[in-house]
């Protein structure tokens, strides 16, 4: 029994080592990727639910790892957050999004806003306002072409501390959206204390429209709540016609999801955009 126990332990320990080693390796690779800026921005269209026109898009980062291939942001963003690399990644994303807008403008494209995800760490760093002000100023683009998606959990961390920053961003003209709305188990009180214009209903609710009665009710309630607070609503993760029909019937303003388009590289996004 003792031997078995020791073997079990050894197996466990070496398993741990492998996991830790892999994590460290990924961290080193991520550091290198940040140095070399070996990321790409993909864009997912946001469509007006009634007209079907493309009225915005969300920028989503992709990392092409030299050996692993594409690594999902769901995997490396948490690592980037725990190591602090996220601040440089978020900066790169903001700059790339604005650079892309300028490139599309040069092509004569009538622009729509790009939404960029901002991590909690970046948001708390105190650099966001100055960085965005500078970026917008340099680009000569109107500030309302940039929208920030901030998760409900991030906003909830420090409502009072966040309020002045959001107000300053709003004054600058930048759009503000609450991401993953409904997953933060929050009191709804913060909503009226922050100058927010858009709620994004989390896809976990959208995916269960029609199959889970509670989730269906939550979706209707969020739309009604947002409208009563004079906010717009985006449904994310729309995959089926049935979901789209329900959202339209409920008056949801915008929809985003695989039903319409996956996130696309800039050139493919432009082709989709021009077809609409
Ligand atoms: P998120 O901000 O909630 O982004 C939505 C995620 O849902 C994206 O995954 C998108 O590709 C995916 N999605 C869109 N439509 C559908 C659909 O119809 N069905 C399904 N099943 N999924 C759909 P992605 O690109 O893998 O990103 C995952 C998360 O990583 C994002 O969640 C966001 O939290 C984070 N992230 C992505 N890009 C960035 C970035 O540039 N900066 C930061 N800080 N975080 C990012
Ligand atoms: Ca988002
Ligand atoms: Ca989301
Ligand atoms: Ca459910």
Please tag this protein with its features.
10 strands, single chain, 276 residues, 20% strand, binds calcium ion, binds ligand C2E, globular, 8-stranded mixed barrel, Diguanylate cyclase DosC, alpha/beta
Describe this structure as you would to a colleague.
By secondary structure, the chain is of the alpha/beta class. The protein has twelve helices and ten strands. It has helices at about 1-35, 75-85, 85-105, 120-125, 130-140, 150-155, 160-170, 190-195, 205, 215-230, 240-250, 265-275, and strands at about 40-50, 55-65, 70, 115, 145-150, 175-180, 200, 230-235, 255, 265. The protein has an eight-stranded mixed β-barrel with strand order 1-2-4-5-6-7-8-9, surrounded by five helices. α8 links the parallel β6 and β7. The mean pLDDT is about 90. Bound molecules: ligand C2E and calcium ion (CA) (3 copies). One calcium ion (CA) binds near residues 179 and 202. It comes from Saccharospirillum salsuginis. GO terms for molecular function: cyclic-guanylate-specific phosphodiesterase activity; heme binding; oxygen binding. Keywords: c-di-GMP. This is Diguanylate cyclase DosC.
Kindly provide the radius of gyration, computed on alpha-carbon positions and rounded to a whole number of angstroms: 21 Å
Strand order in space, largest sheet: 1-2-4-5-6-7-8-9
Distance between the termini: 69 Å
User: What is the SS-derived class?
Assistant: alpha/beta
Low-confidence stretches: none
- Overall mean pLDDT: 92
Quantity of strands, as a count: 10
Which outline best applies? globular
- Percent range for β-strand residues: 15-25%
Oligomer kind: single chain
What molecules are bound to this protein?
ligand C2E, calcium ion
Profile the largest sheet.
8 strands, mixed, barrel
Order of helices and strands: HEEEHHEHHEHHEHEHHEHEEH
Number of helices: 12
Helix content: 40-55%
């Amino acid at each position: 029994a003792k031997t078995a126990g020791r073997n079990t332990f050894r197996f466990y320990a070496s398993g741990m080592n492998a996991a830790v080693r892999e994590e460290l390796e990924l961290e080193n690779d991520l550091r290198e990727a940040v140095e070399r800026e070996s990321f790409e921005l993909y864009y997912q269209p946001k469509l007006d639910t009634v007209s079907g026109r493309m009225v915005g898009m969300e920028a989503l980062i992709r990392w092409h790892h030299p050996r692993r291939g594409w690594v999902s942001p769901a995997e490396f963003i948490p690592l980037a957050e725990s190591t602090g690399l996220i601040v440089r990644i978020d900066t790169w994303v903001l700059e790339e999004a604005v650079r892309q807008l300028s490139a599309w403008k040069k092509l004569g494209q009538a622009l729509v806003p790009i939404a960029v995800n901002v991590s909690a760490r970046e948001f708390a760093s105190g650099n966001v306002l100055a960085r965005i002000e500078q970026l917008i100023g340099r680009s000569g683009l109107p500030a309302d072409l940039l929208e920030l998606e901030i998760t409900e959990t991030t906003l909830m961390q420090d409502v009072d501390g966040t309020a002045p920053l959001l107000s300053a961003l709003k004054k600058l003209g930048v759009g503000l959206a609450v991401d993953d709305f409904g997953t933060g188990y929050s009191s709804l009180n913060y909503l009226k204390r922050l100058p927010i214009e858009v709620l994004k209903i989390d896809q976990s609710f959208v995916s269960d429209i029609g199959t889970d009665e509670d989730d269906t009710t939550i979706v209707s309630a969020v739309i009604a709540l947002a409208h009563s607070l004079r906010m717009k609503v985006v449904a994310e993760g729309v995959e089926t016609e049935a979901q789209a029909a329900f959202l339209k019937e409920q008056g949801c303003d915008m929809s985003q999801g695989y039903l319409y388009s996956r996130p696309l590289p800039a050139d493919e996004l432009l082709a989709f955009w021009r077809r609409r």
